[in-house]
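Service request form, structural biology core

Requester: graduate student, group of Dr. S.
Request type: structure prediction, single chain
Budget code: on file
Notes: please return the result as structure tokens.

Sequence provided:
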Amino acid sequence: MILALLVFFAWTACTDNKNHILLNDEIYATEKAFERMASERGIAEAFYFYADQHAVIKREGDSMITGKENIKDYYARQSLLHAVVNWTPDFIDVAESGDLAYTYGRYTWSFGNNGDTTRLRGVFHTVWKKQPDGSWRYVWD
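Core staff response, request fulfilled:
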């Protein structure tokens, strides 16, 4: 009986670990698809598409922009129309429940005017929420 319990707990731990790795891979793939969309279809469209209905972004001066539409409007500003952003998560963790996750890593924003390019570098932190359809959308960025 004890041996059976030990085998069961070991099997459960392995299964949980595999699920955790799969969820981490889902988040990484979502981050990279988000970045790719920002490059191909524009920053405003990507930040709109990957936002949860109640998403919040914190930007300059500690201002908070709340909701998908307001986030899209923020990124549709003329000064950001030709900006390019790249990022890669350095760390991903998913809650045991499998419905929340967070990432952080480094980003680079590039802005160009008349041949001059300005680059801003920093660290991002994103909180992701699994949606009823199984997709992931950010609730905090």
